[in-house]
Automatic annotation (TrEMBL):
SUPFAM superfamilies: P-loop containing nucleoside triphosphate hydrolases. Residues 323-345 have a biased composition (Basic and acidic residues). Residues 313-322 have a biased composition (Basic residues). This is Sulfotransferase family protein. It comes from Nocardioides aestuarii. Residues 306-370 are annotated as: Disordered. Residues 346-361 have a biased composition (Low complexity).
Length: 370
């Protein structure tokens, strides 16, 4: 498959896949791997939520998981300020050195490297710096799937894990997380090579989408696919992969949150159809981002009492846990002391008998010698 007019470049590329989880990031990564991009092994194996595989470098997943933990940020964080926390950790010299070394190592094997991990969106500046340090260019590929479908997919495969105590809390948190990641991913990638791919479009016409990605990101591998590569991708891409078709009517969340998410979705579709950039769409996304940040600050203020109670409850639970551990240690120490006393008590009669026998033996020997 040759793309007319596709630019050829000898510059090394680090393609970073961004976007919310359950947006088709694994599908595009699998397609681009078959198209010639290198996903550094070993890869994270598939499971029931993604049986065809995740196409994620295990090193990147483990490394970024540690960085999130150090930042006190979770994968589905809806706090706008969470991006500042991840940026601080990612900017540390040892982090920059380690990521740069990993990128350089694998660029020596392939001039087009693919990094896909749901955590990528939290560390986009880090990957840009690593690519630059390695003498390569970074390119961002953001997968798009309607937020209602993303939430529906997470509800199906992840239930209410880390999302909330009720379905409304879980779905509100997940829509807000989608909003947060979508808004800040778009803003962070404006001054770089980027492209947007709609999941539904990829499943319907992967050839057209791959040709567009190759042209917009100036990739050489996907620009000219052999028949064998095309057959491999044909077998891999299955329209039935879109197993969840949730609509807004299925999602229970505040109207304002839903309206903002729909507006962001509409503008991202404009970017997907205009080569990744559109002044008007970007301006409207700026307005929504400011509105979201303002709404979140207000929500934090309203929920301050709940946050304080959660903090106190956490402190109480920590004290209870410590007291329980102390009591358990005291019981174990008491049991050890009791066992030692039992052993000494059991050994005492044995010693007395031995001494009595020794005395009796001496007496007998004296009597015999007379």
């Amino acid at each position: 498959m040759t793309t007319p007019g596709s630019p050829a470049t000898s510059t090394a590329k680090v393609v970073v896949v961004a976007g919310s989880g359950r947006s088709g990031t694994s599908t595009i990564a699998g397609v681009l791997k078959s198209a010639g991009l290198l996903i550094p092994p070993p890869e994270v194996p598939g499971n029931r939520t993604n049986p065809r595989g995740f196409f994620e470098p295990k090193w990147a997943v483990e490394f970024q998981t540690k960085l999130l933990r150090r930042s006190s940020v979770v994968l589905t964080d809806s706090r706008p300020a969470a991006f500042d926390e991840t940026a601080k950790v990612a900017a540390e010299p040892e982090v920059r050195e380690e990521v740069g070394a990993w990128v350089r190592q694998h660029l020596a094997q392939s001039r087009e490297l693919l990094v896909k991990d749901p955590r990528d969106s939290w560390f986009l500046p880090m990957w840009r710096t690593a690519a630059t340090d390695a003498g390569a260019e970074v390119a961002f590929l953001t997968m798009l799937r309607h937020p209602a479908e993303v939430v529906g997919s997470k509800d199906k495969y992840y239930k209410n894990t880390n999302a909330g105590e009720s379905p409304r809390q879980a779905q509100t948190t997940r829509v807000a997380s989608w909003l947060n990641v979508a808004l800040f991913t778009e803003a962070t990638t404006r001054d770089a090579s980027r492209t947007f791919v709609v999941y539904e479009d990829l499943l319907a016409d992967w050839r057209g989408q791959v040709a567009r990605v190759a042209a917009e990101l100036e990739l050489t591998g996907p620009a000219d696919l052999s028949e064998a590569q095309q057959a491999e991708i044909d077998e891999f891409v299955d329209p039935d992969l879109r197993r969840v078709r949730t609509e807004w009517s299925d999602i229970d969340c505040p109207d304002e949150v839903r309206e903002m998410a729909q507006e962001v979705w509409d503008q991202l579709l404009v970017l997907a159809g205009s080569g990744g950039f559109d002044d008007e769409a970007q301006a409207r996304l700026d307005v929504v981002r400011e509105r979201y940040v303002s709404m979140y600050v207000d929500a934090e203020a309203l929920a301050q009492s709940s946050a304080e109670e959660a903090r106190r409850a956490g402190a109480r639970n920590a004290r209870r846990k410590l007291l329980k551990e102390q009591r358990q240690q005291a019981r174990q120490e008491a049991q050890r002391t009791a066992r030692q006393q039992d052993r000494r008590a059991a050994a005492a009669p044995t010693g007395a008998v031995a001494r009595a026998r020794s005395v009796a033996g001496r007496v007998k020997r004296r009597l015999r010698s007379r």
